[in-house]
Design a protein that fits this description.
15% strand; alpha/beta; 2 domains; three-stranded antiparallel β-sheet; disordered C terminus; Potassium Channel Kv1.1, Chain A; four-stranded mixed β-sheet
Length: 235
């Protein structure tokens, strides 16, 4: 699969990300990406000896977020509008770090833009924090090293403690009905299923109460907890 930039100037740079080939131009990429500047220079030095008329070819199979994140970063390098969303911000933030799109090259570069979106938009929202946290599953170790996972987890935990009424609890497992009260277990929120050990505060007292009512008491040892955020507290 090949992707092209709509331009009258012939492409002089071929970037391969997985099975996708991007036909780009050197100057927009090296102006905002330290890694692209370095790799293009090294590649061009070798290509100039073999065939000076051949476009520089660069392979970036290990770019975090894959071809989709790289395409957004390339659009940014060309000055095109890039729509930042909770669904693409983690991959784009990792790709910006990988491509070394720092403030040393240009003020307001992609690392700065994505960090600002994470800090001021994502972390202020229940839903966005959960979406970003889940999207980090395929971005290891970049998402961990950039503290995206930690920040989203802490944001969700803080909001759950500050506004417990904004959390709707759902349970599965034998005897996992607790009248809507949160269980004594730890885990993450927002559609992520976590497993925790739930202990009754006084098993002997509960057992006596069940025998008095003619029921057999079965202690609850494990439960699967699924947290979801109510629409009234989505942001």
């Amino acid at each position: 699969m090949s992707r092209y930039v709509n331009s009258d100037i012939p492409s002089d740079l071929l970037v391969k990300v997985g099975d996708v080939s991007f036909h780009l131009h050197k100057y927009p990429m090296i102006s905002r990406s330290g890694r692209m500047s370095r790799v293009i220079y090294e590649t061009a030095s070798v290509a100039a000896v073999a065939d000076p008329d051949t476009a520089a070819a660069v392979g970036l199979d290990d770019v975090p977020g894959g071809a989709d994140s790289f395409e957004l970063a390339a659009r940014f390098c060309y000055g095109m509008a890039v729509d930042l969303t909770a669904a693409n911000i983690s991959g784009l933030r990792c790709a910006a770090e990988y491509l070394e799109m720092t403030e040393d090259l240009e003020e307001g570069n992609l690392i700065f833009k994505t960090e600002a979106f994470l800090s001021y938009v994502v972390l202020s929202s229940w839903r966005d924090s959960i979406v970003v946290l889940k999207s980090c599953e395929g971005l290891s170790p970049w998402a961990e090293n950039l503290q995206i996972v930690r920040r989203c987890s802490e944001s969700i935990a803080w909001k759950a403690c500050a506004n417990p009424r904004g959390v709707r609890w759902a349970y599965t497992g034998a005897g996992a009905t607790t009248g809507g009260r949160p269980p004594r277990a730890t885990g993450t929120a927002g559609g992520l299923v976590v497993r925790g050990r739930v202990r009754a505060p006084d098993r002997s007292l509960r057992a006596r109460r069940h025998r008095h009512q003619g029921q057999r008491y079965q202690p609850l040892n494990h439960a699967v907890i699924n947290l979801s955020i109510s629409s009234a507290s989505s942001s």
